Amino acid sequence: MNLEKSWRRLQQQVVETQVWKSIFRVGIPNTNRKRVLAVLGNVVLHLHPVKTRKSGVKMRYTWCAGGMTFFLFLVLTFTGLLLMFYYRPTIEYAYGDMLDLREQVPFGIMREMHRWGAHAMVITVWIHMFRVFMTGSYKPPREFNWNVGVVLLVLTLLLSFTGYLLPWDQLAIWAITVGSNMARATPLAGYEGPFAAQIAFNGVNLVTAGSDARFGLLGGRIVGANALLRFYVLHCVFIPLIAAFLMAVHFWRVRKDGGISGPL
Amino acid sequence: MTAIKDIINWLASPAIAVTLSMVGLVGAMFCKPLWTKKGGILLFATLIGGFAFSFTDPNFRIVASMPDNVPILGMLFLVGFFFWYAMYQAHLNDARLAKGLPPLEKEDSDKKVFTWPDLVYVELISLIVCSIVMILWSIVLKAPLEEPANPGAAPNPAKAPWYFLGLQELLVYFDPWMAGVVLPTLIIVGLMAIPYIDTNPRGNGYFSFRERKWEIVMFCFGFIILWVVLIILGTFLRGPNWNFFGPYEYWDPNKLVPLNNVSVSEIFWVKWLKTALPAFWLKRELPGILLVLFYMGALPGLLSKTLFKRFYEKMGTVRYVVGVNLFLIMLAVPIKMYLRWIFNLKYIVNIQEFSFNI
Amino acid sequence: MTESESRGVSAAGSAAVAPTRRGFISWLAVGWLAFAAGIGAFVTTMARFLFPNVLFEPPSSFKAGYPSDYQVGEVDERWKEKYQIWVVRNTEMTYALITVCTHLGCIPNWLASQNKFKCPCHGSGYYRSGINFEGPTPRPLERAAISISPEDGQIFIEKARKFLYEKGQWTDPAASIKTT
């Protein structure tokens, strides 16, 4: 085939330019040595070992649920950043910005991607946990990584929970009201919780609606302006940073604890 | 037709639905023919058939087709499928292990392949498939937006985010400090404790049921029944005023369900001893406190000598104490639910003086 | 320099320069304690940072019109949206119920046909008086301080002063206005 030959020649020419070589170092990874170098030389791929167990490549074993979760996290980060261009976390503007996102922004599926992606990430993270349990992959030497995974699961739920408030519609405010009112019932630290009313000094209660755990979370007695701003910051900066750090630990430990699990 | 729907509505009421799913789940796990390809097709056909049948009902359709409920339906199918798939592979491996062969994955895990291209391409393909699904889903279904937030009027029913609906369902049976603080904390602690409590060295890294029956039954009980089933109950079967509605029932906001619940202290002093409630809280709540102390304090010791003797010897004291307490608390959740359904029990211990209710 | 001299010098030098082991450990302990105290103080300030001193929340006391504006035997919902208050008037007295469910803070609905408040979140039910009788709630609704303003005779409601039934506070003179 003449066409194929010229295609190969073009490919060869591209990968041998100075620009290509300066970026990727190795050319087409067609020898074992180059395959190794392709992984070693790339900061992203470097999270992988150069060789993987064959079982770790098979969908029937891994279900790729963890990978999907990570990919959805990236999708959510990206769409979330785009949404931040339009969204203002104040009670005057938040709802209106939501309407604008729906009506006025071209290709306005970013909010949909963000919302459905969040739902999907919660589901894939559960399925990932289920697979890891069912294959017994939390057993030694992977105990610690299972724990990192549990924390990441909690962070995923918290990310979703904090994001729930941001549209500032009826669903949002009441879901967060009900959810955050549970903090009010924290033993000792919430003002309706067990023994909180007994923490008093000279007959003055120290744990009140204005000083308890829920107040610290919401920055007010009600789900209002402060709560919206706090949840926005938690949702966009604080929790994603912690989650990203722990994901790095999680992936690193997958590799260090003997690679993706398989029968010993 | 109406008769069938009435029966299903009745079967879906919390007490019966939870009982059926508990018995069904544990029973099914020991029913080998279900975990073959034929069994899978049968399960899937039942699920799809039941869903198709239900969808002809207008009341079911209204609830099931709310945009925010679509992912929950997706979860129902996905969790169902992966549960079957895990058990299917587990039974394949079990058959091999029984013959003295290594598990299916063994051969594959002994071989190594280059990450580039084998793994990287699998990742790329998953990534593309995932993107396509997300884009199609986003185009087809609009993200819902309700009326602007109004702190003065709660929607009816007011629901937590769907993944917390299992906890919201527990709020019906437990005081907020239990359902909202203690139980979620213990779920996290319990999950984290799993690798340290489970000393069974077998079944590490491959699907298997035979080698880890007890662990798998326990985990699936927690995950499928106490988490997923309760979410489905909370999403599809809890309507206005958090009243229960069957899947084919109209969500009538004026449905009247009497909920007169009593505490252990009232049952003990008023109903049995026919006296007034003692004024002093310790005396009043003594029966309930003793019950709780017996359950959490004495039962672990008793079990270590009888039913759980095997575990106690294998696990050692510390692991046993942590494990059995987590187990008992997990079991306390359905126990309290049944006490509510059968005796209308509200609190076992009800010390209003300290807002301490169990 | 003799051998003994040099030994004496080196011994004296080490005593002057290098601290004894015990002294070193106690300095280390002080250092670590200071470090721990510093971390503790920083965490405390950070925690305190989460609790603002001034809030921009709606005012909690308001004038609610004249007693004659309210029908005897009715649960009045005119202030529900704005101030989260029901004004209930019966033949004996007028009182202000705070419209926040004592279970998890939802806003119950007044169902006149069934003569009860019913919470949409978890089904808690309260009588007209505010006393709970069904559902998961542990205690009755709260009443707000209510009085007749001496200036113009209007009803004055202070949400910040709450009266709790289970503490026997509903008999407080500020918890209701006697119907004359």
Number of strand segments of chain A: 3
Rg of chain B, rounded, reads 24 Å
Radius of gyration of chain A: 25 Å
Taking pLDDT < 50 over at least 5 consecutive residues as the criterion, the unreliable ranges of chain B are none
- What order do the SSEs of chain B take from the amino end to the carboxyl end, as H and E? HHHHHHEHHHHHHHHEE
CATH architecture of the largest domain in chain A: Up-down Bundle
N to C succession of SSEs of chain A:
HHHEHHHHHHEEHH
Helices of chain A, by number, come to 11
Structural class of chain B: mainly alpha
What is the spatial order of strands in the main beta sheet of chain A?
2-3
Distance separating the two termini of chain B: 43 Å
Number of domains of chain B: 2
Please tell me the overall pLDDT of chain B.
Answer: 89
Q: What's the mean pLDDT score of chain A?
A: 89
Let me know the largest β-sheet of chain A. Answer: 2 strands, antiparallel
Low-confidence stretches of chain A: none
Number of domain modules of chain A:
2
Helix content of chain A: 55-70%
Oligomer: heterotrimer
What global shape of chain B is seen?
globular
How would you describe this structure to a colleague?
The complex is a heterotrimer of chains A (264), B (358) and C (180). Chain A is built from 11 helices and 3 strands, in the order αααβααααααββαα. Chain A is mostly helical. The longest helix of chain A has 32 residues, at 225-256. Chain B has helices spanning 2-11, 14-29, 37-55, 58-64, 70-98, 104-110, 115-140, 165-173, 176-197, 213-236, 264-272, 281-305, 309-315, 317-343, and strands spanning 112-114, 350-351, 356-357. Chain B contains 14 helices and 3 strands. By secondary structure, chain B is mainly α. Chain B folds into 2 domains: 2-144 and 158-242, no CATH class; 264-357, no CATH class. In chain C, 27% of the residues lie in helices and 25% in strands. Chain C has 3 helices and 11 strands. Chain C has helices at 3-17, 21-49, 80-83; strands at residues 61-63, 74-76, 85-89, 93-98, 109-111, 116-118, 125-126, 132-134, 143-148, 155-163, 177-178. In chain C, strands 1, 2, 3, 4, 9, 10 and 11 form a 7-stranded antiparallel sheet that branches. The radius of gyration of chain C is 33 Å and the shape is elongated. Residues 1-13 of chain C have low confidence and may be disordered.
